Amino acid sequence: MIRVITYGTFDLLHYGHIQLLKRAKALGDYLIVACSTDDFNALEKGKHAYHDFEERKVMLESIRYVDLVIPENHWEQKRDDIIKYQADIMVIGDDWKGKFDYLNDICKVVYLPRTEGISTTKIKNDLEKSHI
Ligand code: C2G
């Protein structure tokens, strides 16, 4: 069984995230998603998610490609996660290209092209423009 792991905030959950998760799952048989906690977002990523961690966890767990959701509390937990969950592949969008190559000694690191034309910022801006 090929086990894949990926990391992210996934808020607001959108098509680009789904396409990432779909492609990540296609690389193996079991997909683990490490979802950034609210504290990690606030203290280390400088993000404030619209949905809190529990809500984002529920949404991720409802996606057919996702087999397990774990918390991402720190940047440095990836090595321990990969070992603990016996991940063969670590996948993330190519906006992170090269940033996780240091994990190549324990798993295959794959950077997937981001889905163009969609982002949480674009969604918010488009909604503001359309006054929804
Ligand atoms: N993504 C994508 N296409 C988009 C937007 C996002 O493929 N249009 C991908 C990102 O590259 C990432 C995943 O979807 O692989 C989740 O996106 P974010 O929630 O923005 O992830 P990020 O905040 O970059 O967190 O330790 C790693 C970090 O937790 C990654």
Topology of this structure?
Layout lengths: L2 E6 L6 H12 L3 E7 L1 H8 L7 H9 L6 E5 L5 H7 L4 E5 L14 E5 L7 H10 L3
Parallel strand pairs: 1-2, 1-4, 2-3, 4-5
The protein binds [cytidine-5'-phosphate] glycerylphosphoric acid ester (C2G).
Q: Mind telling me the C-alpha Rg?
A: 15 Å
The chain-level mean pLDDT equals: 97
Order of the strands making up the biggest sheet: 3-2-1-4-5
Question: What fraction of residues sit in β-strands?
Answer: 15-25%
Bound molecule kinds, no repeats: [cytidine-5'-phosphate] glycerylphosphoric acid ester
* Gross geometry: globular
Q: Helix and strand string, N-terminal first? A: EHEHHEHEEH
How would a textbook summarize the main sheet? Answer: 5 strands, parallel
* Count of distinct strands: 5
If helices are DSSP runs of H or I spanning 4 or more residues, what is the number of helices? 5
Helix content: 25-40%
Low-confidence stretches: none
In terms of structural class, how would the helical and strand content be classed? Answer: alpha/beta
N-to-C CA distance: 45 Å
How would you characterize the overall build of this protein?
There is one protein chain. This protein is α/β, with parallel strands linked by helices and 132 residues long. Helices cover 35% and strands 21% of the residues. It has five helices and five strands; from the N terminus they run βαβααβαββα. The protein has helices at residues 15-26, 38-45, 53-61, 78-84, 120-129; strands spanning 3-8, 30-36, 68-72, 89-93, 108-112. A five-stranded parallel beta sheet has the order 3-2-1-4-5. Bound molecules: [cytidine-5'-phosphate] glycerylphosphoric acid ester.
